[in-house]
Amino acid sequence: MACDNKIDGEIEKLNTVLMKGHDEVMPKTMAIADVKKDLMAASEKVSEADKAVALKLSTDLQKAEDDMYEWMKNYGVAMNDVKDKNEKLKLYTELEVEVKKLTTDTETAIAAAKKFTEEHK
User: What is the number of other CB atoms lying within 10 angstroms of the CB of residue 114?
Assistant: First the structure.
């Protein structure tokens, strides 16, 4: 029973971390469409080489957005469908690593796209 309570506590703690991670990155993810729109507008009047850069930046933005939605799907499955507590703890631990990477990747992609847009106004 004590082991069960310990796992429950760890799951609860990780769930709080995961929700916080989600709440930090989700608004950034939701801003990607506007960042991408600005990026594409800026890329219309640049050289072919810069168009290739803009395409890469756009792809990075799309990947960050797609990865966030995939993470949310996986989190939902772990939270709602996984009943085995050890398995849930394992999945939550993996999701914690992923949400940190997601945050970094999203921030990096947005910053690079905004920089390109500013430089090519």
Answer: 15
